[in-house]
Amino acid sequence: MRMVDLIEKKRDGKTLTKDEIDFIINGYTAKEIPDYQMSALLMAIFYQDMTDEEISNLTLAMANSGEIIDLSSIEGVKVDKHSTGGVGDTTTLVLAPLVASVGVPVAKMSGRGLGFTGGTLDKFESIPGFRIELSDQEFIDIVNKSKVAVIGQSGNLAPADKLLYALRDVTGTVDSIPLIASSIMSKKIAAGADAIVLDVTTGEGAFMKNLEDAKRLAQTMVRIGKLAGRQTMAVISDMSEPLGEAIGNSLEIVEAIDTLKGEGPEDLTEMCYVLGSQMVVLAGKAETLDDARQLLKEALDSGKALEKFREMIEDQGGDSSVVDHPEKLLTARYESELPAKTSGYVTKLVANEIGIAAMLLGAGRKTKEDAIDHAVGIKLHKKVGEKVEAGESLLTIYANTEEIQEVEKLLYENIEIGDQAVEPTLIHGIVTE
Ligand code: URA
Ligand code: CA
């Protein structure tokens, strides 16, 4: 087989066979196929798309390019949750202890932030002492003991995806449905969960800017998951404005603690119930979504979920006193308010640009090697649909420098205030087929 023939085949809109896809992924992972040929193929896929069968063959080839984790020594149905990316997306921090507190094992493999999106690992690391590097055995032991643990992606998990993602990032081929679907699902399949709940985001703060594309991405991933023998479903959620009020690592830990106390932002709390109920049903701990929601609500109201968060922090070496004293985490040197210039209703908070503002403060990375500042970020006081008076604070900026003019300018440019109240939509649909 010759790579050039396969590039031409895809360029001309034909379908690649399983053997051809295996040849490509194995060859590229072994560094026998050079980046320039792979780049040409990625661009051909971007324009010509792939059939469902091609996408599942690509996903399985990528999953099989490295280690497939065996979680069978953890009792029960292991459920994973994965978001396609967002701004201020604090759900995992709440969901992991919440769902575990009703007896569902949560063996969560999470990532770091890049660009305007945040990463769950970075957020957990803002808790002093918290370790995300656990051996496989330590990870399994903790989940068996406490039902929940979170770790980083190990070096040999879907290495083909790691190589391809880096190449896509610099060749204009990130936002392609077959490439995103195979990238995410290869990692989920390799990470070993029995059931997968996908949060497919749509809007300015997501890869899929429109609902049609988000639906197709969701349907594609659900189909692949099922073909791979994993129960899979997707929630299509809105990411045109940031989720919740906090954007930034320590700030989101505080927001998660508030939410686990029943005092969190409405949209984040609802998102956790929607995704959490799906996880509980897939794990077989409740028959209906209503029953699952009731279980989760009881765990939250009784303080059981918050206790689980405390236990989770201790299991992973962290200082759990932050649960009672979250103010310990708020260590940024400067806090400043951003006053509204006019009165009216907030009609737009452009998620990706607000994510960039948080990144400029130091909460995120411009390149994979950048260090991040856990203390900094943004706390929104007005969300889309809320009324605001001129001079009232729209948000607080937490910074470690006084030079925040550029950030303030960017924020003003991306917050719209109008005369008409608008009603934001949180959930755009559920995909199970
Ligand atoms: N997240 C991933 O892991 N891969 C993509 O391609 C997009 C989002
Ligand atoms: Ca948030």
From TrEMBL:
Q: Where is the Pyrimidine nucleoside phosphorylase C-terminal domain?
A: 345-418
Q: What is its EC number?
A: 2.4.2.2
Swiss-Prot/TrEMBL cofactor(s)? K(+)
Q: What class of enzyme is it?
A: transferase
| Catalyses which reaction(s) | uridine + phosphate = alpha-D-ribose 1-phosphate + uracil; 2'-deoxyuridine + phosphate = 2-deoxy-alpha-D-ribose 1-phosphate + uracil; thymidine + phosphate = 2-deoxy-alpha-D-ribose 1-phosphate + thymine
Gene3D superfamilies xrefs: Nucleoside phosphorylase/phosphoribosyltransferase catalytic domain, Pyrimidine nucleoside phosphorylase-like, C-terminal domain, Transferase, Pyrimidine Nucleoside Phosphorylase, Chain C
According to the UniProt entry, the coiled-coil residues are: none
Gene Ontology molecular function terms on file? 1,4-alpha-oligoglucan phosphorylase activity; metal ion binding; thymidine phosphorylase activity
A matching Pfam family: PYNP_C
PROSITE patterns (UniProt xref): THYMID_PHOSPHORYLASE
One GO cellular component term, please give it. cytosol
Q: Which UniProt keywords apply?
A: Glycosyltransferase, Metal-binding, Transferase
Biological process terms in GO annotation? pyrimidine nucleobase metabolic process; pyrimidine nucleoside metabolic process
Task: Explain the purpose of this protein.
Answer: Catalyzes phosphorolysis of the pyrimidine nucleosides uridine, thymidine and 2'-deoxyuridine with the formation of the corresponding pyrimidine base and ribose-1-phosphate.
Q: How does it assemble?
A: Homodimer.
Similarity-based family: Belongs to the thymidine/pyrimidine-nucleoside phosphorylase family.
Q: Which NCBIfam families match?
A: PRK05820.1 (NF004490), PRK06078.1 (NF004747), Y_phosphoryl (TIGR02644)
Protein name (Swiss-Prot/TrEMBL): Pyrimidine-nucleoside phosphorylase
Source organism (scientific name): Enterococcus pallens ATCC BAA-351
- Source organism phylogeny: Bacteria, Bacillati, Bacillota, Bacilli, Lactobacillales
